[in-house]
Amino acid sequence: MRKFFTVSFISALTIGIAYFLPSSVWAEFGGLPAHPLIIHGVIVLLPLIAIFLLAGLFWKNLLRKLHLPLIGTLAFSVVGVLAAKSSGYSLSAIVGLPKSHAQLGNYLVLLAIALFSSFVLFAYFSFYKRSKFASLSLGVLMALLAVSTIGMTYVVGHSGAESVWKYRYEIGKEQQGLP
After folding, report:
1. 116: nearest Cα among 13, 1, 3
2. Which of 28, 104, 113, 134 is the 20 to 30 Å CA partner of 90?
3. Quick check: helix, strand or coil at residue 27?
4. Number of H helices and number of E strands within the chain?
5. At what angle do helices 99-127 and 60-95 cross, to 10 degrees?
6. Do 86 and 33 touch, CB atoms closer than 8 A?
7. C-alpha distances in angstroms, 11 versus 18, 61, 173?
8. What is the DSSP letter of 22?
9. What would the pLDDT profile of 5-27 be if each residue is shown by its tens digit?
10. What percentage of residues in the chain have a pLDDT greater than 70?
11. What local confidence, expressed as pLDDT, does residue 159 receive?
């Protein structure tokens, strides 16, 4: 149980620190805006973890064996979401703010943090302080949050891509004479 608390505490502390870092920390990498670089990791990693958690609800032994690395990986993914939000804020200060995309990104931050929290509690009540009611309730909550996270990741990613590429793509098609 000591490993569980250590991993959970360090993961939560990392998320807390990332949450309060100034947005300039994530503004750029090597002279390029960091937002387009960071979001690709989030778009891939967060839904993959959510899918793995959903599968783990059906194969609980899988989560029993891998819950500690999953806590750390999910925390890393939440830090990625926070970095994407922060770097997006920095980028928007320079190129303008796509308001609906920014608001959707705020919702994704909340969902990612809630998914992390629900998984830590689920793991605790499923594998350490066994409580069938708490485990079942948190499993249902975690499943709803995982599905919502997958959906919201798609919506946020699509709205961001649309805000950057939709009009440029249409102009490029017109210039090429494509339908």
Report:
1. 13
2. 113
3. coil
4. 5, 2
5. 160
6. no
7. 11, 22, 46
8. -
9. 999 999 999 999 999 998 788 88
10. 99
11. 86
The encoded tokens of residue 62 equal 């899988």
Residue recorded with tokens 């998914």: 115
Both tokens of residue 146?
Answer: 């995982």
- % of the chain with per-residue pLDDT over 90: 65
Give pTM, 2 decimals.
0.89
Q: In whole angstroms, give the CA distance from residue 142 to residue 67.
A: 14
- Give the mean model confidence (pLDDT) for residues 57-81: 95
* Tokens linked to 45: 């990693």
Distance of CA 174 to the CA centre of its chain: 36
CA dihedral over 141, 144, 148, 149, signed as positive or negative: positive
Q: What pLDDT does residue 161 have?
A: 80
- Token reading at 56: 């783990």
Q: N- to C-terminal Cα distance for the chain?
A: 61
